[in-house]
Amino acid sequence: MPNITLLLLTHNSAGDIKTNLSWLSRCPRINEIVNIDDYSTDKTLPTLQSAIPKQIKLVSKKRHLDNNFASQRQYAIKFATNNYILWLDPDEQPTDKFVDFLNHVNLDTPTNYSFPRTEIFLGHQLRWGETRHIRHLRLFDHHHGQFTGQVHETWQSNPTHQLSVQSYPIIHRPQQKFYDFIRKIDFYSTIRSQELYSHKVPPSLFQNIFYPLGKFVLNYFFRLGFLDSTPGIIFAICLSFHSFLVRAKLWHLYQSSST
Description:
Number of strands: 12
Distance between the termini: 60 Å
Number of helices: 8
Strand content: 15-25%
Radius of gyration: 19 Å
Low-confidence stretches: none
Number of domains: 2
CATH topology of the largest domain: Spore Coat Polysaccharide Biosynthesis Protein SpsA, Chain A
Structural class: alpha/beta
CATH superfamily of the largest domain: Spore Coat Polysaccharide Biosynthesis Protein SpsA, Chain A
Largest sheet: 10 strands, mixed
Shape: globular
CATH architecture of the largest domain: Alpha-Beta Complex
């Protein structure tokens, strides 16, 4: 059976690695990890080396991520010796069902596999809202496409078979406090606004007002985020705030360029 390469991007991820990579010992099809590290200042690399089974080959390269995650994942692919790539973030952990799927799935035909993700937000599992409906394409034959998108990167492929595997979720369990989450929103909104600016997307007062409002209404009411109680409304407001920051920063970029 074809083996699988695990692709990781890391930056000061020692804590996440220690928590989330124990599943590798139960997945013999993963015989290789390609890790691109953004010059971590903690013990990311030695923690990674000690966390993986000895039979797994580790290819680790240091490179500044330069706020373009798609290009970094694309860079990592050239070091993979297997056709199939599984990409995860260090704060994501496959369930036992997901691992069992990896061990038994037939990979003889080029296929893109998408999976749901269970969101753990500030220690609470979110069962409703936006995250309930998103499917993440995470397993693919790297000869049939490329990563796109500066932030929230996705795999865009040539026509191949697409399969959404509903019953095998990935658990997203970031080790963060609320301050860290807000700082992450600030970071990603900056990258997204720069991406829109580079594509000459103009700012709009209408979008500044109604995009954040619409995102909140969609997530909290139409996608039933209110059923997640207090964590649900906090999460919906934070997503709406991210939408607002993207457009506010886009407006500021245009203002700065005209002075």
